[in-house]
TrEMBL record:
This is Cytochrome C. It comes from the Bacteria. Gene3D superfamilies: Cytochrome c-like domain, YVTN repeat-like/Quinoprotein amine dehydrogenase. Keywords: Signal. The keyword Signal applies. Pfam families: Vgb_lyase (PF24684). Residues 1-27 form the signal peptide. The keyword Oxidoreductase does not apply. InterPro entries: Cyt_c-like_dom_sf (IPR036909), Vgb (IPR051344), WD40/YVTN_repeat-like_dom_sf (IPR015943). The lineage of its organism: Bacteria, Pseudomonadati, Pseudomonadota, Gammaproteobacteria, Alteromonadales.
Length: 410
């Protein structure tokens, strides 16, 4: 009987120790979970973690280092990296479909100075200088790619610029997405000139482009408006889209200087009369269709990314014909940025990890695609805008706060 009593007491003692250990582990996990929630949800939704491709502990720590400064607290980085690797390990849920071809790509990367700024929308001037905005850091940035030298200018308080465009003098203009402004940096004085929207309902200038006459055209997504600014007079005109909730997003000019706009909230493209600002809406097929951005070829074919249905589309303004092609990675690929370059249309599949770049050859109407590499094995995107630079495509990767130049060869 005493032997049974000994075993019973040993069982009780062991159970107690395991309970204490389990409680400690649970407390540690809870603490790590709270740390992750505090750090990550400050800048983005925690659903980003669930939608990620997952990483090893080391790669999670690398990605964290692009976003926040954990200082000298190595235990903090260790704990968070361990927690993320355990709960969000490497997976293939968002894997892309790659189409092989003859063209080879070369990537050159630059890491911007301020962490967590969400660097985006870089544009290169004829003088070679690349400008970008750090939307969440409220920054306008300058990069000399020949030397790698960078300079960051704090934007006026509350600006949180969404994009930057260059006028014919290479002056960088920003669009104040949070305070309803458009402005520029005077390169001689390094002072900002700011224009406020004339309508309180015009809250969120988004993306802009200059025409040959120096007029600045821009979209206001959630305000559902198109804007026109004359820098000589400071006069701003606004026009509201005919369909409620169209959410005008990308904007480009055709060879006549006519602005064309993509709709992120409705299945439409919009043509703007540059004289009267009258808006003409073109309905696109598919109720789920929405178009982030567009590109225009030299012969004025309007190409767009059908972000809602995973397609590349073309609208012929002369005939009214609409043609669409399926993206290599399918309906859920969420194509986003788009640009015309070298007799091809280039766009990215932003929902895939690694993020994928696609080239659509205009002659053969065939596609080739590549998984976009990132520094140190961290494949977090995403590219929201791409523009042709002096040598190749200029892109960004928001999560890792990197700018890049893409060149190609056969």
């Amino acid at each position: 009987m005493s032997n049974y009593k000994f075993l019973f007491n040993k069982y009780i003692a062991t159970t107690a120790v395991l309970s204490v250990f389990a409680a400690a582990v649970s407390a540690e996990n809870k603490q790590s979970s709270q740390l992750v929630e505090q750090l990550c949800s400050t800048c983005h939704s925690l659903s980003n973690l669930k939608r990620s491709a997952g990483y090893s502990k080391e790669d999670w720590q690398t990605l964290i280092s692009y976003m926040v400064d954990t200082g000298e607290n190595s235990n903090l980085k260790e704990d968070i990296g361990e927690y993320l690797a355990t709960h969000y390990p490497v997976n293939t849920h968002r894997g892309s479909t790659v189409v092989e071809g003859d063209i080879k790509l070369q990537f050159k990367y630059w890491q911007v100075p301020t962490l967590g700024q969400r660097a985006r929308d870089p544009v290169q001037g004829k003088n070679g200088i690349i400008w970008w905005v750090g939307q969440w850091g409220n920054i306008l940035g300058r990069l000399d790619p020949s030397t790698g030298a960078m300079q960051e200018y704090p934007l006026p308080r509350g600006t949180y610029a969404h994009s930057v465009s260059l006028d014919k003098n290479q002056t960088p203009w920003f669009l104040g997405n949070k305070n309803g402004t458009v402005g520029y940096l005077d390169l001689a004085t390094e002072q900002f000139k700011v224009y406020k929207m004339p309508d309180e309902n015009a809250r969120d200038p988004h993306t802009g482009v200059f025409d040959e006459a120096g007029i600045f055209w821009f979209t206001l997504q959630h305000s559902n408006m198109i804007g026109k600014l004359d820098p000589k007079s400071g006069d701003i005109q606004l026009a509201t889209l005919p369909t409620k909730g169209s959410r005008p997003y990308g904007i480009k000019l055709d060879s006549t200087g006519t602005p064309w706009v993509s709709c992120n909230g409705s299945n439409c493209l919009v043509k703007v009369d540059k004289g009267t600002m009258k808006l003409s809406e073109i309905k696109l097929p598919g109720a789920k269709t929405h178009t982030r951005r567009l590109a225009i070829t030299p012969n004025d074919m309007i190409f767009y990314v059908n972000s809602g249905m995973g397609k590349l589309g073309r609208f012929n303004p002369k005939t009214g014909k609409i043609t669409e092609w399926d993206n290599p990675s399918g309906e859920d690929s969420h194509p986003y940025a788009i640009e015309y370059a070298d007799n091809a249309i280039w766009f990215n599949e932003s929902a895939k990890r690694p993020e994928t770049l696609v080239r659509f050859d205009l002659e053969s109407e065939t596609m080739q695609s590549w998984q976009i590499p990132s520094k140190e094995g961290v494949y977090s995107g995403l590219i929201r805008h791409m523009r042709m630079g002096n040598k190749g495509l200029i892109i960004h990767q928001t999560a890792t706060n990197q700018l890049a130049e893409i060149t190609w060869s056969k």
